[in-house]
Amino acid sequence: MQRLIELTKSDQCKDCKVCCRFPEQSPNLKPSGLNLRKTGETFTCEAYDTEACRCAAYTKRPFDCEIYPFAVSKSEDGACTLLALDSLCPNHEGILYKLKETDLAGLEFPEGTEIAWEETFIPIRVLKNSGNGGNKLNTLLNEAVFFFRSYFFNTGRLSALGFPYHMIWNHTTSYFWKIINGSFCLFSKTGKDYCLPLPPYPYSKEACNECAVLLAGLSSSGFTAFNASAETAEQAAKDGFASCRTSEEFLYKRTALAELKGDNYKAARWLCNVFEKNSDISFRKYESSDLTSCAEILNAWYNQKVGKTKYEEDLRLLGHSLNANRAALSMPEKLGLTGRVLRTGSTVAAYTFGSALSEDTFCVYFEISNPAFKGAGQYVFRELCRELIACKYINTMGHDGIEGLKTAKELYKPVEKLGVYTITIK
Ligand code: SF4
Ligand code: SF4
Hints:
binds iron/sulfur cluster; 20 strands; eight-stranded mixed beta sheet; single chain; Aminopeptidase; four-stranded antiparallel beta sheet; alpha+beta
């Protein structure tokens, strides 16, 4: 427990007015065993020393105060007990960052400390699953990257096992989760239709069947689970489901892309050399100050594509891509994305965003280059691969049926094309 309390300590607490003050007399987060007194428009804990601006009962404060902004909470569907983090705390992003290096295994919480779910809570970990919660689902919002990764990190190499794959679309799609039959089930809703953007994890026939019943109660779209690996699809077929290979993703050996040695990589190497002739090249971590200049090359990329697009459906997909890129540029940390920017002088030549899927595999979700700089795309990709020394493989996703993209990805000599399958009921 001490590890958790250590994470909550911050210099920001000194000037913060969130803790110990409440908007109502009996809030969900009321310190247990203490009363609140009216102070102007708000209510303040009776143990709060307003003159000294500190807790007068600090060493004996209740457990919920000790762990705040963490809270032990019921999930939205009422079926689980969760460790949650309150996003109202201005330091919550710093805590989320530190959580990556914190071992949460074996945490135990005193009985009777569980409170009701708050909309501002970010799920961190399921502590106990004690029911099914009926048809109710739990909303999955941006910032739940730590929670998502606790289930899917190190479970495969498909791009959909990364949190950004899903959440970059939440301008059109809402995401939900639920523990069904012991498996983590991710649901998405676009318009009125629900589906599973990933099969239940761990996969089980029983979890799929229960999802099918739940989906039948939510919409008329039936059971479809997307982004299954070949192994899961094979097992689903044995269990009586229909499975179909819908696309493929390109997996490369990182060292080959970082070195670009030999005849296979002649063209990519040449393009990198062309770009290298530019002066004052910098390749560095994406920062919020890069947003405007990266958005400019994104718009240039979009306008160029729109000019060449004839079909309504392609235009619609381009619009979605534009919004997904904008989401990546405006909130990379919340989506769990790592970004890099390539510049020559003060001009952005390219940017890229991706995320680790496992200890050895990194997925590149976005790469946009400035058409004014020949070879910028190849250069930014090579530099990223050079930097990711801990990774063995790079997934660059599929080709969306675009022939030119497929040819370009083939040229980099993938070590494997990962099949992506869809599972439905026969
Ligand atoms: S809300 Fe967060 S930053 Fe503010 S006092 Fe509480 S723990 Fe500290
Ligand atoms: S007990 Fe102390 S820390 Fe807890 S709400 Fe009251 S004043 Fe704040």
